[in-house]
Design goal:
Number of helices: 6
CATH topology of the largest domain: Aspartate Aminotransferase, domain 2
CATH architecture of the largest domain: 3-Layer(aba) Sandwich
Helix content: 40-55%
Strand order of the largest sheet: 1-2-3-4
Distance between the termini: 45 Å
CATH class of the largest domain: Alpha Beta
Radius of gyration: 20 Å
Length: 230
């Protein structure tokens, strides 16, 4: 409703840019949010541009996170996972009528149009499709979230756990506990990032073995308990 109000009041908004699922703390809006946003953009002539750079190509259990919401954006920005961890690669996907790259120069960059990057991206997409990694992300994500909920039930330091596919978050009561946990886990060979100061964000590779995922979650659980006791 607020977006509708802003678009109506400003009248000349060119675009609404949103990170489909906020990767820094795994905030996933309800389906109705994006349905309302899509309708509002259509009514007021604004483009809907989705930033899926950190989460694209299967992490949320669908190739694009916006598929979960049943909407089609006007543009979607991809990166990170597009290169399969082999080559840095990014892309802008747009509706056909917005694709003007063939008609005019939009600027040129020293490292643009990489044939190696394109090969890496195509290989990544092929592996995701042929090895069934989308279904695997959903299955492993559900199991991981169940494990996190058990963790939440007996660790008072945990405020909330949440997840979308293999994008998982553990929100802690204190930023100090989050930082201490991060360094303790790093010393044991487990690397992850902390977002918003107090949210442990876990983004394992789509090809991770279930046993490795369980081991990683066990390390996190142990080190949260130790950090909270300090």
């Amino acid at each position: 409703e607020y977006v509708e109000y802003v678009l109506a009041k400003e009248e000349d908004v060119a675009a609404v840019v949103v990170e489909t699922v906020r990767s820094t703390d795994v905030q996933a809006p309800p389906r109705t949010y994006y349905e309302t946003l899509r309708r509002a953009c259509d009514r007021h002539g604004a483009l809907l541009i989705l930033d899926e750079i950190p989460i694209c190509l299967g992490r949320t259990g669908t190739m694009f996170a916006c598929e979960r919401y049943g909407i089609v954006p006007d543009m979607v920005v991809l990166g990170k996972g597009l290169g399969g961890g082999i080559f840095p690669m990014a892309a802008l996907v747009a509706r056909a009528e917005l694709d003007v790259a063939a008609d005019r120069a939009l600027g040129h960059y020293t490292h643009e149009k990489s044939s190696v990057g394109c090969a890496a991206a195509l290989a990544t997409i092929e592996v995701i499709e042929t090895e069934g990694l989308l279904k695997r992300a959903v299955w492993l994500g559900e199991r991981a979230l169940e494990r996190l909920r058990v963790m939440e039930a007996h660790l008072p330091a945990i405020v909330e756990v949440r997840g979308v596919g293999l994008l998982l978050a553990i929100e802690l009561a204190d930023a100090g506990i989050a930082e201490e946990t991060m360094y303790r886990c790093l010393a044991r060979g487990l690397s992850f990032k902390v977002g918003q100061g107090n949210v442990i964000v876990l983004a394992p590779p789509l090809v991770i073995e279930e046993s490795d995922l369980e081991r990683a979650l066990g390390i996190v659980e142990e080190e949260i308990a130790k950090a909270a006791a300090c």
